[in-house]
Amino acid sequence: MNASAELLKELRIDRSAAPPPRGPSSSRRWLWVVIGLVLALLLALVIGALVSRKPTITVETAPVVAMAQAGGGSTAVLDASGYVVARRMATVSAKITGKVREVMIEEGMRVEEGQVMATLDPIDANAQRSLNAAQLDAARSQIGGLQAQLRQTEAEASRLQSLVGQQLVSRSQYDQAVAARDSLRAQLLTAQHNAKVAQDALSIADLGVDNNIVRAPFSGVVTAKAAQPGEIVSPLSAGGGFTRTGIGTIVDMDSLEVEVEVGEAFIGRVQPKMAVETVLNAYPDWKIPGEVIAIIPTADRGKATVKVRVALGVKDPRIVPEMGVRVSFLEKAAPVGAEAPKGVRIPATAIVQRDGKPSAFVLQADDKVQLQALETGATLGKDKQVLSGLSAGQTVVINPPEELKDGDKVTLAGADK
Description:
Blueprint (H helix, E strand, L loop, with lengths): L1 H9 L15 H27 L4 E7 L1 E2 L9 E11 L2 E4 L5 E6 L6 E2 L4 E5 L2 H43 L5 H40 L2 E3 L4 E6 L6 E2 L9 E2 L3 E4 L4 E8 L11 E6 L2 E18 L4 E8 L11 E7 L13 E4 L4 E3 L2 E7 L5 E5 L1 E6 L2 E6 L6 E4 L11 E3 L5
Helix pairs in contact: 3-4
C-alpha cells in the first residue's frame, strides 16, 4: 500500500520547479524558410526582367507617297530654301541737306510715281531764288537802256556818214560816232549774255526750291518711315545719330521674286526656264507656280552655293519681301496619256543596306518595325523611287540606327511630348 502511494507521488507534477530551457520552435524556423524562399524568388524575377528587357529605340518616320500620275504634275528633282526679294526697292532721300517740314507717308501706304512723300523747309532756297530773280530783272533793264543808246548812236553815225560825203563834217567826228556805236553794240551783247547767265541762275534756284520736295521715284508700297518733321535729313551720313539719310523705303511689289542658294553639287540639275513650285513658310499649304529666271554666274566659296533667281507666277498681297520660302525644282511633266510612273517614293535616308540588299523598316500597328527588302528606281531629289516592296500609305523609319533590328519595338520621336 505504501509502495503504491509512493508511485502516485512520483507521477504528480511539480509546478514550483523552473521550466527547462526552450530552443527555437520548428514552426518559427519554417516561417523564416518560407520568407527567404519568397525573397529569393522575387529577386530572381527582377534580375530576369532586367536582363531580358531591351530598351526601345526612338526613331523618326515618314509616309510612303505614291508617284505622280501621268499628266497630273511634275516630280521635284531638287529642293532649296530662300527668301522673297524685291528687284525694285529704294530708300528715298532728299538731294540736299535740310530740315523736314512735313512727312506725307505711312507704312503700308501705296504711292504712285512722282507723288510727294515729304517736304523740307525751303526758306534758304526761296531766298536764293528771290536774289537770282532780282539779278535777272537788273540784267534785263540794263539791256533796255543799252538798246536805246545804241539806236541813238546808230542814227548819229548814219547822219554823219552822209555829211562826211558832202564834206560838211570832219572825218574824225564821223569815226568817233562809229566807235561809240560799236562800243554800245559790244555792251549790249555783254548785257544780253549777263541776262542769259541770270536766267540760268534762276533756273538753278528753281531746282533748289524743287529739291526741297521729295517725290516717289516709282510706284510701290511704303515699308518703312524713317523721318519725322523737325529732323535734319541729308543724302550723306553726317555722323552721329541726329541726321537721317532717308525719308522712307518703298518697294515695287510687282518686282517680287525669290532668291535661293543651291549647293554646288546640285546646281547641274537647275536650268533656266525650269518649272518650280514655291511654298511660303507662312502658308505651307499654298503652292505657287513659277520658273527659273537665271542662275547667277558666281559661287559663294564660303558656303559652296550658287544663287538662283526664281520668278513667282502669282501676284498676291500675302507675298511680302524677306519671307522665307521653300522651292522645289520640277522635272518636265509627263504628257497627258503617257504611262503613269511606277511604284512609290520615300526619303532616301529611309533606305539601308541589309544583307547586301536595299531595305527599309516599316512601322507596324504595335509600334514594332518590320525589315522589308526593296527594289529601288530613280533618285528624285532627296527622295528615292521604290518599284516594289512598299505601298502608298505605309510609314517607314528614316535614318534608322545600326542597332535597329527586325521586330524591334520603337518609340516615335516627339510622342512623349
